[in-house]
From TrEMBL:
InterPro entries: C-N_Hydrolase, C-N_Hydrolase_sf, Nitrilase/CN_hydratase_CS, Nitrilases_CHs
Species this chain originates from: Enterococcus gilvus ATCC BAA-350
Location of the CN hydrolase domain: 9-279
GO molecular function list: nitrilase activity
Signal peptide coordinates: none
Pfam families named among the record's database cross-references: CN_hydrolase
Name used for this protein in its record: CN hydrolase domain-containing protein
Domain of life: Bacteria
Membership in a protein family: Belongs to the carbon-nitrogen hydrolase superfamily. Nitrilase family.
Amino acid sequence: MIAFTKSKCKVAVVQAAPVLFDKEKTIDKTIQLIQEAGEKEADLIVFPEAFIPCYPRGFSYGFVVGSRTMEGREDWKLLYDHSVVVPSADTERIGEAAKEANAYVAIGINERDPKNCTLYCSFLIFSPEGKIVSKHRKMKPTGTERCIWGDGNEGAISTVDTDFGTIGGLICWENYMPLARAALYQKGVSIYLAPTADNREEWQHTMQHIAMEGRCFVIGCNQYVTKSHYPEGLHYRSELDHLPEDLCPGGSCIVSPFGKYLVDPVWSQETILYKELDMEQVPLSRMDFDSTGHYSRPDIFHLEVKEN
């Protein structure tokens, strides 16, 4: 492990709803939440997957095998129009908020590549100086997410060394990719970020398993979104009718390197979870299990990662 200069890290986990399908208003809300966490002297502020402008849960976008609808294309175009180009004035606004808060800010976005018309589910980390120090594009969107996001390879296994530890993470079901997790452990991750849209009970077991496997702090971060948050005027809004009012009830949590909850999952509310992490727990937890150290067998196994 790298020798870090601070043994404590105060983390703020934002469980909130964006202003769905509205980039400008969601960035306004993001900045307000960063300011709130900054006033509490958070060192690391974490937002959910696809927070800007939203995770479009419940929509088919008119996709069926062999055909699409123009109405579905128009709904998708709204998401496209409100996605974020990196870098841009949008990321500069978030970076300035991170700088004012003097904190690392990690946030999920819908990213629009200006060179083409493809959207990516991306996760950015801003430094306390307001600079983008990591951009990870979701490597494999899950299920029908593939209808709206392309496969990403930029920053596939991206970590950031801070004065309190190495931070890095994967988005939602990327966390079920064993080799991707192993690649993060290989980079010495001590605070593992897991932004998600998964609110199942099984996801909580995943958070605890990763903490035990990687002997790292795990930050699970999800949105809290209800059907009432969705704007009118979307062609496929009626597809939400059969779904529960709490479309995404949350479940954000903080887990220790020993697999124990430091902050239990929080449900059915917008909130910010705060916890001071004792980074000394990381080496303490690895005394008897270090997946890339004394508990590895490099004479038998070798992992090769193609960096982008």
